[in-house]
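Re: Re: token formats

Sure, here are both.
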Amino acid sequence: MLSTSANPHIDPAELAHAQQVVHSISQSFEKKVVGQALLRETLLISLMTGGHVLLESVPGLAKTTAAQTLANSISALFHRIQCTPDLLPSDIVGTQIYDAAHGSFVTALGPVHANIVLLDEINRSSAKTQSAMLEAMAERQTTIGGQVYPLPSPFMVMATQNPIEQEGTYQLPEAQMDRFMLKDVLDYPSPAEEAEIIRRIDAGVFLAGATPSPVATLEQVVALQETAKKVYLDPSLVNYIVGLVYVTRHARDYIDPALAGLIEFGASPRASIAFTSAARALALLHGRDHVIPEDVKALAERVLRHRLILGFEAVAQNIRVETIISAIVDSVQTP
């Protein structure tokens, strides 16, 4: 568990350097990804904390482009895995191959051995294949033939799922959903943003040879992660975070019973941990060495929307999980 009041102090030079690195990555991202400011913020938070992101949206909203652009901007190894029902765990983590020339088995590492891994349409892979990602996401390692292979650092998984096409899909189990630090739901671009996308296509921005040069190194990203851990989190904000998560488990005592009755299970302690790490990263993104309540509130939907388990009545009544999260945030006094 990260410390709070005992955090090391961030000196002004370290804070300024972190700001410069973040700003450079953001600018590089904006050169290829039009709009999607919240997505950019979410990916930067994930990068700075070593967390994983689940993205939900219809096709064509630049999820792959965003992941590829982020990887290019920091000189990271990027792999994209297209999930299908016939995808095997060994297709992700790797396998052992017999080398006839030497009469022995050699290990071929799978595409999960990269700095940034895009799992496209993760809900199209079987439960067995989905579970193969749990060890990689939680323990930063894979096991092939009884041998443990550590994953590179930094390591980040960005998984996507399509909400409008459910045929041939496998719903993610709650245990795996909980492994994702944040869940973002992307919306369509505005008309002005969509027109800008067309202009950039005509200008050749998205051609293979137009990839921007890296603006940061993996070592700088690791240093950025260490700086984020030093951001001060006041004990009153720790209590605020724990209070928000507590209400998800005892909602009937705090919010409208009609909304509370829709919650079957509240968030796990991983939600509190995610709030803590993500709030520190968000504060650093805004150039602060301390967390404020607004940082926590800004993250509430992204931290909780995939951790609240709602009953079928919520779907029947067309009540979105964000409505319930808003009621939970309003029920807890801001420090």
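Second one below.
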Amino acid sequence: MTAAGNHQASRHNGRRLERAGIRDVAAAAGVSITTVSDALNGKGRLPDATRRHVREVADRLGYRPSAAARTLRTGRSGLIGLTVTTYGEEPFTFTEFAYFAEMARAATSAALARGYALVILPASSRHDVWSNVALDGTVVIDPSDHDPVVTDLVRQGVPVVSDGRPAGNLPVHAWVDNDHEAAVLDILDHLAAAGARRIGLLTGTSTDTYTRLSTTAYLDWCERVGQEPVYEAYPAHDPCAGAVAADRLLARPDRPDAVYGLFDPNGTDLLAAARRYGLRVPDDLLLVCCSESSVYATTEPPITTLSLKPGRIGTAVVQLLIDAIEGADSGAPVQQVMPTDLIVRTSSQRRPPRTTVSPPRGSGD
């Protein structure tokens, strides 16, 4: 029987299962304790094969780092924060939105895999409230221009990684984002190819990079193709305001024949507004919205959505943050751009006109 097998057997002989320690992992993997520590913490200059081998052995033995021992050894709490500061003190339960929920789920899993726990911080809390929790670092989603929370955290020596490209010189250690300009241009070209001649936009009033870059891309596209912009902006944290803006957009005298909505509820809001005005989707109005919600696959008709891949982003921001906490970052801000995915459904595909074929006339007609 192997050393690992002997260890596993011995763990089941007593009434209580003993927790595998770092020495057990080192013995089973045939490496030093230092190598195990470096492999599990993403440190040192180890071959990828060695890191994988050590992690596989650690998983097999059920090894988990001791949080108490790490705190004594490193002075770190093992806690990292996650919050949205875009809307400041406005009430905004961001975990109710599919993007943020998926991003937080992936971030939580990535943190646990590295021996950290994720703390969800209320969007409306200022940093003096957060000081009650000893955080090793914080992920900030879509920070606004000149975000004071980010600046204060960095000034106090707390590493910050942003989900969203920061504007100006916001001092984050790293950021992960999508190419929003390219994504918007692809959507507009997709709608134009489906026959749209006047494409509208539902956008927000906030100053976060996602909103700003997406809106700018739309305005630039309109100028390039010679279309007058047709858009409505509203506070994105307020779902009631989104429904009002959708109605306002479709009530305009220059009503669009296609609309792209930047935010999660825009698809259902636009679909409801279209029904109120007697517009058929997709015959009279083409629709696309940015959302991770599976509900759009079952609406009538199903609505085309843009996915920003929040699961991949959540994993990436946590990995970058923990690297910064543990001193494994390169020093210069790290920038990662994630791909998007346009999931094309009925709402953005205009049906071809029906043609009626008459039966051949009989010889006696």
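The two ends are 94 Å apart (CA to CA). Confidence is low (pLDDT under 50) at residues 1-17.
- S.
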